[in-house]
Amino acid sequence: MISSCYKLTYDPAGTPVVLLNYGDKIEAELEFPLEKSVEVVQLVDAPAPFIRVAKNAVANFSVARALDAASDKEARAAVLAALVLSQSATKKPLKIEVLGYTDRYWTFANATIKSHRVRRYLETPKCRWVQALDFVATGLTQTGP
Length: 145
Hints:
Blueprint: E1 2-3, E2 6-10, E3 17-20, E4 25-26, E5 34-41, E6 50-69, H1 72-86, E7 92-98, E8 105-121, E9 127-143
Antiparallel strand pairs: 1-4, 2-3, 2-7, 4-6, 5-6, 6-9, 7-8, 8-9
């Protein structure tokens, strides 16, 4: 486990929910793979096909954070409570802040949690559970310099 250098806030202008905070224990560094819509058009008698790149870009990324509970039963109850809350996730903006930067942040205009995996983490003497969120997000912009 490593400490997070990111803060992810779901619906920052509405009812903000911090899904990941600075210092939270995470299983791996966040990766942000971005895919663009691309169409390959086969042209008759042309030396190469034509590639049409759309303006759409979608990021699919995941984060798995570890949370501690006071007891084993509370960790297991937290797993189930997280599932109940995640069912209501809809399309909202997602704000990303990087530790150390106070003059800028990044926002996906549209993001949703497409899957949510939770489990009791048994490889530690603590009463720990893991919440893994898979995001689909579009419309990334930067605010600040």
